[in-house]
Amino acid sequence: MIKFFRKIRQQLLTENKLSKYLIYAIGEVILVVIGILIALQLNNLNDIKKNKGYEKEYLVRIQLDIKQDLAELERLFQGDTVKLDAYTFLGRYLHSDSIHTDPTLIVSKLGYAFGIQWFEGKNIVFDDMKSSGKTGLITSDSLRNSIQYYYRLFDEVIKEESVHNNSIIKYSDNIYPFFETGSGSDLGMPERWKENSNEKSFYKFYNSLINLDEDQKQIISNNFGLTKANILLNHKVRLLLYQEGLKTTKAIDAYLKQEK
To answer: What's the predicted TM-score (pTM) here?
Structure first.
């Protein structure tokens, strides 16, 4: 093809047809420009296709992460309910006639009450996307904003939990001195590592409860109430994240179906 055009140019120059040569030269330049534009367009289309593939891959992985977050949050909600029920039961016990309360039930409720729950979550995929400057691969502004808002709430849950759980630790530290916690922990040990028999450990722990005076009961009750308040605050902020997670996974689903 190049030899063909060169031959035409040489012929025009030989025949001294300058005007025709200039027209031909301009035409040749236009053809070259058109060729470059076509090549750029094809390259651009190829890039768009590749970016669409990356976008889909990221969205699928982000959606999987959020679904795992939702499953974790559901487990935490169940734990919140168990703990709040346990603290409520124990608070009522402290203000009631303990003679009519099943000691085994009290000890089991204490076992449910103590301990702290943390939301861990999975944000590795989104963090990777953000740190590498690839959030722009998500071409839908509304979907990108939804995902970014979800992960802002994600970070907020971590921060809020840290504050509330540190408070729960402090309130638990205020309660432990009133109980034979060593005997209580021995109750849950496998036989191989028990220091005392179940019965001995149980009654030693239970006696520390029934021998509380009114002032001690009031201190414990107050700390139970403060603990419940912080568990509920954790629950509420997690619930916001859960609702946003449901909305975001549905938005990703709708977008991926639309792009097929």
So the answer is: 0.75
